[in-house]
Amino acid sequence: MIVPAAATTLQLIDSHCHLHDTEFYPDPVQQQAIYQRALDAGVGMICVGTDQRSSRQAVAFAVTHSATWAAVGVHPHEASHGWSGIAALLEQATPDDSPIVAIGEIGLDYYYNHSPRQVQIAALEAQIQLAVDHNVPISFHVRDGAAGQVSVWDDFWPIFDNFRGVRGVLHSFTDTTTNLEKGLARGLLVGLNGISTFTKDPNQLELYRSLSPETVIFETDAPFLTPKPFRGKLNEPGYVRIIAEYWAAQWQLPIEQLAAMTTATTRTLFHLNHT
């Protein structure tokens, strides 16, 4: 049974959340209430997988909930557990009516190294190829390690450049303006989330000041990274409006204008052609 959409047209889309994942939202009543609050606020969402289990859940959730889509992929933390199931999910999808709109979240994470770096690299390369083969964008998770270590970007950019036709978003991007410029030059967008509403890190603040509305899409990464004034509480997709309102004030734009711009950008990137 598909949960019906709200009567109003979507005003915003949370381009990256994990509401579908029962590891983070184990109570189905709470999960449904959070979904309904988002829908009532005119917010749609893309549910993003982090491993094979959660990717299957993302697809199932998107199939049964209106204004909801799925991204499937294996996070670098989970690369050691394999990624063959992602190809199977893509192959099983009906091309004309698939809820799967992206591969993600995938990438490299040298901060924790939960999976060996060579395994992370193999998973990234294989899943980029899947995105190219199926003509879908990618939600990239790229996180550097400690100072003095090999930079994750020294591995990531050459891998990215080995492929043609890759499009996507740098999810939860908080790195340097240099890597921002490299990403934008390659046609990537930036995922802006709750971090941008509360950070006091001078490098992140400099990075955020260099962004423009044309280069970003909004995300919550719920249940993580809850924006002010709800920081410390469980995040939810409906809070994407708080992030949008914060940036409308920063850029001195009417919220309606910024919402329309970023929602159009999100729809274009992910080929979202229905409400």
How would you characterize the overall build of this protein?
With 275 residues, the chain is an alpha/beta fold. It has a single domain (12-270), classed as Alpha-Beta Barrel (TIM Barrel), CATH 3.20.20. Helix content is 41%, strand content 16%. It is built from 10 helices and 8 strands. The protein has an 8-stranded parallel β-sheet with strand order 1-2-3-4-5-6-7-8. Helix 1 (28-40) links the parallel strand 1 and strand 2 (43-48). Helix 2 packs parallel to helix 3. The longest helix is centred in the middle third of the chain and has 18 residues, at 117-134. It is globular.
User: CATH first level: which class?
Assistant: Alpha Beta
How many helical elements?
A: 10
Largest sheet: 8 strands, parallel
Distance between the termini: 17 Å
Structural domains: how many: 1
Instruction: Find the CATH superfamily.
Output: Metal-dependent hydrolases
**Helix-strand string:** EHEHEHEHEHEHEHHEHH
Helix content: 40-55%
| CATH topology (level 3) name | TIM Barrel
Unreliable spans: none
Q: How do the strands of the widest beta sheet line up side by side?
A: 1-2-3-4-5-6-7-8
The geometry reads as: globular
Briefly note the structural class of the backbone.
alpha/beta
What portion of the residues fall into strands of 2 or more residues?
Answer: 15-25%
> Can you tell me the CATH architecture?
Alpha-Beta Barrel
Rounded Rg: 17 Å
Number of strands: 8
Mean pLDDT across residues: 93
